[in-house]
Amino acid sequence: MKSPPPSSSSSSPRRSPFSSYLITLSFILFVAFLYGEDFACVLRHPFHSSEIQEYSASKVKDDLAAVNEKKLAVVPFAVGRGKKGCDLFEGEWIYDEEGRPQYEEEECPYIQPQLTCQAHGRPDSAYQHWRWQPRRCYLPSFNATLMLENLRGKRMMYVGDSLNRGQFVSMVCLLHRIIPGSAKSMETFDSLTIFRAKDYNATIEFYWAPFLVESNSDNAVVHRISDRIVRVRSINKHAQHWKGADIIVFNTYLWWMTGQKMKILRGSFNGDMKNIVEMETEEAYRLALRRMVKWVEKNMDPNQTRAFFTSLSPSHEMSLGWGGEPDGNCYNETTPIKDPNYWGRSSSKGIMRVIREVFDKSNVPVTVINITQLSEYRNDAHTSIYKKQWSPLTPEQLANPKSYADCVHWCLPGLQDTWNELLYAKLFFP
Ligand SMILES: *[C@@H]1O[C@H](CO)[C@@H](O)[C@H](O)[C@H]1NC(C)=O
Ligand SMILES: *[C@@H]1O[C@H](CO)[C@@H](O)[C@H](O)[C@H]1NC(C)=O
Ligand SMILES: *[C@@H]1O[C@H](CO)[C@@H](O)[C@H](O)[C@H]1NC(C)=O
Ligand SMILES: *[C@@H]1O[C@H](CO)[C@@H](O)[C@H](O)[C@H]1NC(C)=O
Ligand SMILES: *[C@@H]1O[C@H](CO)[C@@H](O)[C@H](O)[C@H]1NC(C)=O
């Protein structure tokens, strides 16, 4: 089922008289290698398969036994534990023709036409076949039955912007195959979209709140506003709809990127709107995250529920950054970036620092799904020009496709399925 990651050579220990000789020789070769021109290769394949810990069935059984014996700290939803010393977010992309994707685009009717790239003429499909391989362990394989069994009688909710909506749809696509047609439904009520798995009495929901806190971009349909205004301390208008959720996955980032400053409203949107001040974006972002954490503290029981935060999703607007054409973007990109040190300009280190600081200090556990670095490598995974367009394209645009490429959102199936695999790992194997 899973192909092991590439390894250079077998490194099993030997007990022959030559062993010390071999060790010395390999050390010399290693040093020569390190200082040779092939240094970049070492970085590209930074690990050996022998270092990677397997999630074997027996291991899961041991973990379950340990959970049952209460040897593990009680983390809601845990069925096993994560591998010690394994950072799931550090690793590399491996091409896996058979193992990925986990569903087909035309087989999942819930994907919105802004994300169905094949249906909109994307000529290549390699972007669907990459599997994330953490450096020191395998990701547990996504088991839709296990997920649904554990969601029985529960409410799982994604709250945030269109990128989180994509992740919500990816989760529905990963699960829907095992639910018969009459036992599932998808409905939208204003800002709230609900997928129901009736036999499980489970819902998976998406709630539109691009800033998490209240803003003038909250209308679920009409929200393309360039002069954005937020009320950083006001969350209840949205959060009243989140009460009773057992698992919440938050995100917010894209809508904050309007420049150095944000407009903050002190009064209400129904008032005279006079009391508007400007604030550094990072500071405003920090206040909004803190407000969200305060809500979690007051409204979610850490013994029964889990809260997650998906870190910022990078975009790929300037191909010069990864050694492409001077005026290019994600258009025409078909393979991931190989440079392990690549960090695009679009991802703000300042915002990442704020995320770390806020969640490190919070009194309630909010698990960060750190998708930023691993998504930075995926300049090939955006919807680009292969999506339903909001308005008809002009002849000038058609003559220059990269001018209208969407280098923010991601094709499904694709990268966002991996975000859910990571969420699955953190949920069940904390
Ligand atoms: C998936 O989970 C279900 C329920 O826990 C279990 O019965 C089944 O064996 C699992 N499937 C695989 C392939 O591990
Ligand atoms: C279904 O789940 C909800 C929580 O989402 C719970 O309040 C309700 O009692 C459940 N109903 C049944 C019949 O189990
Ligand atoms: C969670 O469980 C622990 C141990 O059972 C208990 O001490 C604590 O009060 C509980 N917390 C809440 C918020 O119920
Ligand atoms: C896109 O890629 C193809 C194949 O590599 C190339 O022939 C074509 O010129 C590229 N188009 C643009 C606009 O860069
Ligand atoms: C996410 O991972 C990147 C790269 O490993 C790291 O620089 C960053 O600090 C992490 N962010 C958070 C919020 O943990």
Automatic annotation (TrEMBL):
- Gene Ontology cellular-component annotations: Golgi membrane
Record carries keyword Phosphoprotein: no
- Please give the family membership noted in the entry: Belongs to the PC-esterase family. TBL subfamily.
Put simply, this protein is called Trichome birefringence-like N-terminal domain-containing protein
Q: What is its main location?
A: Golgi
Q: How does it sit in the membrane?
A: Single-pass type II membrane protein
Keyword Membrane on entry: yes
**Annotated compartments:** Golgi apparatus membrane
Query: What's one GO MF term for it?
Result: xylan O-acetyltransferase activity
